[in-house]
Amino acid sequence: xxxxxxSLLIIGAILLIDKRKLKKYKNSKDLWVYFGILGLGxxxxxxxxxxxxxxxxxxWISAVLKPIISIF
Amino acid sequence: MVxxxxxxxKLVKDKNEADAQPQLEDPKIEAPPEEALSTELNLNIxxxxxxxxxxxxxxxxxxxxxxxxxxLIYINGLVDKMIIGHFFENIGRFDHLIKHxxxxxxxxxxxxxxxxxxxxxxxxxxVRLYKKVVSAILAGNAVLLVDSISHALVINAKGWRDRDVSxxxxxxxxxxxxxxxxxxxxxxxxxxxxxxxDPRLWLEKKEIGNITQTSISVMYIHSIANDKIVKEVHxxxxxxxxxxxxxxNYIEEFIQDEVYTPFPTVFNTERPxxxxxxLLEGRIAIFIDGTPFVLLVPALFTHxxxxxxxxxxxxxxxxxxxxxxxxxxxxxxLGPSVYIAIINFHQEMLPTxxxxxxxxxxxxxxxxxxxxxxxxxxxxxxxxxxGLRLPKAIGQTVSIVGxxxxxxxxxxxxxxxxxMVIVVSITxxxxxxxxxxxxxxxxxxxxxxxxxxxxxxxxxxxxxxxFALSLHLCSLRSFGxxxxxxLAPYIGSDMKDTLWRKPRWKLxxxxxxxxxxxxxxxxxxxxxK
Amino acid sequence: xxxxxxxxxxxFTVLVALYTxxxxxxxIPSILAAKAMQDIWIAGLIGLGSGLGLVxxxxxxxxxxxxxxxxxxxxxxxxKWIGKAVAFSYFTFYIFILSTFVLRDxxxxxxxxxxxxxxxxxxxxxxxxxxxxxxxxGLEAFTRTTELFLPWIVILFVVLFITLLPQIEFTNILPIxxxxxxxxxxxxxxxxxxxxxxxxxxxxxxxxxNEPKKTKKAFLLGTALGGGLLILIxxxxxxxxxxxxxxxSIYPTYDLSKTINIREFFxxxxxxxxxxxxxxxxxxxxVLTYALCLGMAxxxxxxxxxxxxxxxxxxxxxxxxxxxxxxTYLIEFTPIYDFYAVLWMLMPVFIWLVSLVRGKPV
Lengths: 72, 529, 362
Hints:
The structure holds three protein chains of three kinds. Chain A is mainly alpha-helical.
């Protein structure tokens, strides 16, 4: 619960800092990119703060690369 | 916030609408200010009395001038009584004089005679508009109105009491010129002119402040100062729209590049020699009437470490003093925070005997180091602020009480450890070393931030704080010049007069970014020295 | 134009040098010593030589495409959409992962040696906040900051070097080439991968140097300075604390500064020596994050890269927390990472080949 509140605070802080920039690009498609990345970050942050461990991207990398390396 | 903004907008809008509507004329005022003077003296007097709201310091002296009624109007206190007395003395001899001159030329008009009579001594001008008359009176002139003549004579009788040129109170030197600016802009510009006798020393005058009409002068040496910066200064000054300018800070806050920074990006000084030196470097001075503090732009970080005396002592001495100042700057910025960090997080950095003695001291202290330091620092700031503006007699009491509170009593009561007292006092004294008061304040503010960082993250927090601070400093600009120049961007040729000062004969070139055209300062090389 | 600022050639050199030193300064001695043993300096020199070749190659690419930035080069090379896709995957899977490594390095280091009780989240947030602030201020501001830090690094390094001189034992680097050339070459590969391969991000910065044509010398000089410093540090740690200690320790440079002791007076200064590392890691992370934001902005046609700084920072923060589930995983992953990085190295080669086939571009 505490972590969820902290996550919300972080997102709030980010939006607050970017307030002026967001206003400047109000009607451009740039905001889609912005909120796309921010949303992804938010979801990950929520999952992480809820106590579940996120898989590291390195697992996938090593899963793909290990067989190839073993050839050498 | 939003509501406030809206209310403000409405207010501005209302005001603009009100301005747009023609204001209801007071029926008594027959002549609007744009109009020319009336030939009837009484009407003119009536109008002026209305305009000034019958102010008691506005004096109207009636007399007769060649059978015509005349009046001399001036503001008491703004004019020199001697000049007025001289004027009326001559009025007595007037008849005789005018007869004498009539003898030469038949058709002389009384006021023309007055004009020629006074012209050699005082600047005399003829004006025909009410507006001009009013502003002339306000500027401290005496205005002569004569019946049946539709113009007024403005006699320069300015002469109010000014503070004399005296010794500088805020920037003292052991060696070097002692004089400081006064509140009078003409005296101030003259003080600089006396040092730089060159026609290329240009002075451009402006009047800023809708109500105060304060005179502002921009001074620079043409062909040395960078034209772009001069233009920029003018543009920024012209943008100012305010009712009153009372001190140079009014201007400073309008023209500085970055508002949200503790660091000053405009330099101020009350010493003519500092202004002259800055002008020779290609910087630009802004004089403001009514204050002895003159603004210098662009102001870079290193300028705030240079005292006037650095140039009046030999180079080795001033180099050492400057290095001392930089060291003191770091101590005053980081002193308490490094102590907190080491006590809280990095005890292993201290030699064991010192650690033991510190631990023994801190044994009875009930607070963590951060709180301890905060108590001390806040007390110190309060004492400092209290001592600053108190009458001298009380100020001494405050410092004695403060010394007792801050020093012995607090330690003996076990609230503060003795080591903390040492750290805080060294920090405070280090802060006083900085020649520029406003730079010192920046450090005072930041010191608290660093203390919090150190209290929560130790040296790591301090390092992060230093990074953020350096980023901030490097992002600042003063009139387009990077604030940290010549350290970053590094300009080798400008390093000679920054944190250290090379011998005079090595200071051959002027700072590069301030000035692009006229770089060479002197042609003295060590060989033909 | 995404970036309006311009930096000077000199500033570029400093940036490259400190970036090269980057995270490597603390870890590289142990990585090199693991295989090359006392021949660390030979491996280092071989690595530096090949690294310089690599940098020259990067510069050639940049020159061939009239100093466009990496995304523009890829778009030019592979067409708009494929180029964008390649650039996107490059930035997400290489630069982004690399940035999280760097951030995590700071967190792990602080957690293991300096502040054991502080939560890693707080350490990451503080560091990232400063880095993002730098990126938001723009290229000019953080480059100037880098320049401002340079004298401190030099001073601290000279102090480190001089104070360690009395403890040097030359027998530590003998015998030379005990196990043949094979392990030396293997560890020089790690050296190439670790700092030099990562210099590819400067393809995003070269376009904003005021005289891009003069960057060749600056790029090579910066790399040589940074690489030289690394070799010096690695050799120094072998000379002072010996091969076994260097290889076994996670942060040999830190242990090295712990041994500083001049007459019981000047000692326990490792916290100050860690400042060298803080600065270089800071520079490295700022450059990486800047390149990342700039790259993403060009991929998505965002007008202002500063808009993306904070969301990308948020992602960096989360991923850096989860990237290594355990410290053993790091050791397990290192050989895979070498391979992975080399794989990404194929991309510039590919660009080169395509541009050769297509003839001179533009």
